[in-house]
Write a structure and sequence with these properties.
290 residues; alpha+beta; Helicase, Ruva Protein, domain 3; Tetrahydropterin Synthase, Chain A; GTP Cyclohydrolase I, Chain A, domain 1; four-stranded antiparallel sheet; three-stranded antiparallel sheet; 12 helices
Length: 290
């Protein structure tokens, strides 16, 4: 009588070895359900790959995006691996794109819990974790879904994504207060700009947390003191440096990264050219390794 191999048995063996689902299932059948024996058999079959994939550093990877045809849902995802060779592999990139499209089906905006995501079915009877583990076994590398962010437009608005040619940097931008092709085009230009300005973290200086502002201001005041500036002008110097810092980290006051195309206009000026009611609702920038 053949031993019944459960999904839990297969999962347990995969966690121990990093081998693919089919390899685990077949080997468990050969081992009559004995996990320890199955581990030994897999070590013979797969050699040094077994048990080591999950321990390897994931310093390479790809950033990919998905934006629905109606422009109302979008996702940015980062998937990591060990080498640049695999990061550029068509199957690896296709996996990242497939994950992004799957995540977009949910209607809740914001950062995605990757641990929860792994247990979701991406196809009948196949979880994302199963798909990930199979790709890991196929490539011989530690494939990890690093992070994902979901965007949902409720009402008037538009989404656009930009992925750098290297696949190492990606951005999704959500515009509010305007819709249609012009709003989507503006969002695209903002996404391109953010991709090229890694210091940009906030939409405007109003979004910078007060404790972060205070800490930065203290540093500038101490610098002015260390430089021997007169006490009566130290605060003014510190405030001037703070305002300059705002332009580095806040999007709206920045001149677009392509000044020739946009005549040196700032992002805020481009926003107003679209519509006084238009807003940059939010954006997310992922960079592999950062």
């Amino acid at each position: 009588m053949s031993t019944t191999i459960t999904a839990a048995d297969v999962k347990a063996l995969r966690q121990r070895t990093g081998a693919g689902m089919l390899d685990c299932k077949k080997t468990l059948q050969e081992a009559d359900g004995d996990i320890e024996k199955a581990v030994e058999l897999l070590r013979v079959k797969l050699g040094n790959k077994v048990g080591k994939l999950a321990d390897r550093e994931t310093s390479e990877g790809t950033v990919q995006a998905f934006v629905a045809a109606d422009g109302k849902r979008g996702v940015l995802v980062e998937v990591d691996c060990n080498t640049d060779f695999v990061a550029l592999n068509d199957d690896f990139v296709a996996f990242a794109k497939r994950i992004a499209e799957h995540v977009a089906k949910d209607g809740n905006p914001g950062p995605v819990d990757v641990k929860v995501l792994l247990d979701e079915e991406i196809a009948p009877g196949q979880t994302i974790e199963a798909l990930r583990a199979d790709l890991s076994a196929t490539t011989g590398e530690n494939v990890v879904i690093g992070r994902a962010d979901r965007f949902v437009v409720d009402g008037e608005g538009a989404l656009a994504a930009y992925i750098h040619a290297t696949g190492k940097v990606g951005v999704v931008v959500q515009v509010g207060g305007a819709s249609g092709t012009e709003a989507a085009a503006f969002a695209k230009e903002v996404a391109l700009h953010v991709a090229g300005t890694p210091a940009t973290k906030y939409v405007s200086s109003d979004d910078v947390p007060q404790d972060e502002k205070d800490a930065e201001l203290r540093v500038y005041a101490q610098q002015a003191e260390a430089e021997g500036k007169p006490e009566q002008i130290r605060d003014k110097i510190a405030q001037g440096k703070l305002n300059k810092w705002f332009k580095d980290i806040a999007l709206l006051p920045q001149e677009h990264i392509n000044p020739d195309k946009h005549d040196g206009k700032t992002i805020d000026q481009l926003r107003k050219a679209l519509s006084d009611d238009a807003t940059v609702a939010r954006f997310t920038r992922f960079q592999v390794g950062a």
